[in-house]
Amino acid sequence: MTHHLLQIGGITPDMRERLEAAFTIYQLDDFDPTAITHVITNGHDGVNPELMTSLINLKVISGYGVGYDAIDVTEAVRRNILVAHTPNVLNQEVATTALLLLLACYRELLRDDAYVRSGDWQAKGNAPLTRSMDKQTVGILGLGRIGQAIANKLAPWDATVVYHSRRKKDVPYRYFDNLTEMARACDALICITPGGPSTHKIVNAEVLEALGPHGTLINVSRGSVVDEAALIAALTSGKLGWAGLDVFEAEPVVPQALRDLPNTVLLPHVGSATVETRAAMGALTVDNLLQHLKDGTVMTPVPECADL
Ligand SMILES: NC(=O)C1=CN([C@@H]2O[C@H](COP(=O)(O)OP(=O)(O)OC[C@H]3O[C@@H](n4cnc5c(N)ncnc54)[C@H](O)[C@@H]3O)[C@@H](O)[C@H]2O)C=CC1
Ligand SMILES: O=CC(=O)O
């Protein structure tokens, strides 16, 4: 029996090869909605509500990523559609990206690289000093799988890790139940919560001001978690020191103001984007679909679908 898979977003040649052995693959510009039983999609595009409604025989949505805020999981559960994602296999890579942004902000990596390339080093002498990353207090907003990996990777810099999550955990770090209070106590704040309504713009003007003129904000979660207009205002006025951002409110559109500011380091949503980690994520995304063909289950359902 042929199974019909709708592909939303890019996949790797390895993923395609394995999928083609089991599915006929359709693209968004040419498919029969009533024939589709499985969807593969990414964290950015997800599955919009109109599309989900039209896919009347849909059984599984396999997300090529861990965040699933772009998929209406409540509607999926109501319709008995299994939603799968790729937890854990990307923890270390995304944590490395967070550290990369943090270090680039502290040590002014982009400014100093430009200083050498422009000839300023030769023309003007030594570059201005930067700030040490040693012994900083770093707040983690969302101490889950990736948040814990970030905390682990901060150890060589002798950081004091503190955190704010939905609830206190059994970890050796100080818990803050109030995000603004945590920001006030921190040198740097790293956002790594899921997106969606419960975290929408929780990093607002008050939190940014509490982080302060010497503070650094790192966002590797979702653009929706930070109030981008408030962030631009704080960085421009000097109420916030630096920002390292992998995610933005309206990707791939990045406000010109953020691009013009000298105290930002900007990445094009590449938290997990290495050959090795994308291979592991791709394998799990495909495994989820193939397992469903075998026994009607997926390996890594999102928590809301665990009992379906
Ligand atoms: N930049 C990138 O390329 C990537 C971004 N991500 C983002 O990182 C997120 C986290 O991934 P994991 O660590 O695997 O998820 P997780 O579910 O293991 O951890 C999420 C943490 O956020 C906390 N949290 C949830 N809602 C909250 C709220 N309203 N206030 C405070 N804390 C809250 C949870 O308690 C949990 O500790 C993903 O959902 C995704 O949005 C993930 C991978 C790559
Ligand atoms: O943003 C990426 C993800 O895996 O979520």
From TrEMBL:
What InterPro entries has UniProt attached to this entry? D-isomer_2-hydroxyacid_DH, D-isomer_2_OHA_DH_cat_dom, D-isomer_DH_CS1, D-isomer_DH_NAD-bd, NAD(P)-bd_dom_sf
Q: Which residues form the signal peptide?
A: none
GO cellular component annotations of the record: cytosol
Q: Which residues form the D-isomer specific 2-hydroxyacid dehydrogenase NAD-binding domain?
A: 100-271
- Could you tell me the EC number(s) of this protein? 1.1.1.26
The record's keywords, sorted A to Z, are: NAD, NADP, Oxidoreductase
Is this entry keyworded NADP?
yes
Gene3D superfamilies tied to this protein: NAD(P)-binding Rossmann-like Domain
Q: Does the keyword Chloroplast apply?
A: no
GO terms, molecular function = glyoxylate reductase (NADH) activity; glyoxylate reductase (NADPH) activity; hydroxypyruvate reductase [NAD(P)H] activity; NAD binding
Which SUPFAM superfamilies does the UniProt entry name for this protein?
Formate/glycerate dehydrogenase catalytic domain-like, NAD(P)-binding Rossmann-fold domains
Pfam families, alphabetically?
Answer: 2-Hacid_dh, 2-Hacid_dh_C
The D-isomer specific 2-hydroxyacid dehydrogenase catalytic domain covers: 38-302
The UniProt family comment states:
Belongs to the D-isomer specific 2-hydroxyacid dehydrogenase family.
What is this protein's record name? Glyoxylate reductase GyaR
Q: Which organism is it from?
A: Planktomarina temperata RCA23
